[in-house]
Amino acid sequence: MRRVVYTRRMILSQTKRYIIQNGFRNVTARNLAAYMEMSTQPLYKQFDSIQGLQQELVEEHFHKLAQEYASQKSDQETSLQDFADFFVARSQKEYPWFTQLFLTKKRDDSVAECVNQCSYELFKSLCNVEDNPDLKEAHDAFLALLIGAAVWQKQQKNHQASAKLGTLLQPQLNQLVTVNVQKNH
Fold it and tell me: What integer pLDDT is reported at residue 42 of this predicted model?
């Protein structure tokens, strides 16, 4: 009988597929083990808990998002508009995963908290400012705008939507940045 080694990377990848198909709510050690055709032992050997596994997936998503954006903008200054365009385009490539992360209400509170915290940390780095209560408010508005824009883009199902998106988002982004700058000075 051939022995299979279940790596951390493989478990993360399979868990992401499972979540896309079944949602975060249905993630249990037994469900994952059945999906991956293994016992629960490799899961607990690689991760302290199923909650930790889910959080690592979320953190990995935002880390990759930041890396991809940074590599795209390596020689240019970043802006919220550029990131909004990037985020919306990226969400279209992985729309089922995007849906599970941002739109499904049937997530564990710790997953929702992790999504919010990771997106906030990314937002802080984009704004290049210190943590403050006003920034949290600006983040929440920006995230809602991004999620709405990604859903709108998916509904448009055409290439002209990207050009329209920038035009639609620009006034809201300008207002968001202006309000944030005024509150910080």
Answer: 93
Quick one: CA torsion of 136, 139, 143, 144, rounded to 10 degrees? 70
User: For the chain, what is the HEC assignment?
Assistant: CCCCCCCHHHHHHHHHHHHHHHCCCCCCHHHHHHHHCCCCHHHHHHCCCHHHHHHHHHHHHHHHHHHHHHHHCCCCCCCHHHHHHHHHHHHHHCHHHHHHHHHCCCCCHHHHHHHHHHHHHHHHHHHCCCCCHHHHHHHHHHHHHHHHHHHHHHHHCCCHHHHHHHHHHHHHHHHHHHHHHHHHC
- Enter the pTM of the model: 0.82
Give the number of other Cβ atoms within 10 Å of residue 115's Cβ: 21
- Contact at 8 Å (CB) between 16 and 97? yes
Q: Which two tokens stand for residue 118?
A: 């990771």
111-168 pLDDT, tens digit each: 889 999 999 999 988 888 777 777 888 888 888 888 888 887 787 765 555 555 556 6
Is the pLDDT score of 181 beyond 50? no
